[in-house]
Design brief:
It is a single chain. Helix 2 packs antiparallel against helix 3, helix 2 packs parallel to helix 4 and helix 3 packs antiparallel against helix 4. The chain has about 70 residues and is mainly α. The longest helix is centred in the last third of the chain and has 14 residues. Helix content is about 80%, strand content about 0%. The radius of gyration is 14 Å and the shape is elongated.
Length: about 70
């Protein structure tokens, strides 16, 4: 049971990338493997997985204003 929880947390950024329809799902999935060994890197991958649509939304807004 503990192993399942560890694997779930290790690949949580990849699962979140699937939920948020990320274009970079494969890259995030690959990045999860070594990032799980470092909390800082894992946190960075987690942020990358969850902020994709927000960044695109604000980028499109800036292009419309210009």
């Amino acid at each position: 049971m503990l192993a399942i929880a560890v694997v779930f947390l290790w690949f949580l950024p990849a699962l979140l990338a699937l939920v948020f329809n990320r274009k970079h799902f494969k890259l995030i999935l690959i990045a999860c493997i070594p990032a799980g060994l470092s909390m800082i890197a894992w946190g960075g991958v987690l942020i990358w997985a969850t902020t994709g649509k927000a960044v695109d939304k604000y980028a499109n807004r800036r292009q419309k204003q210009a």
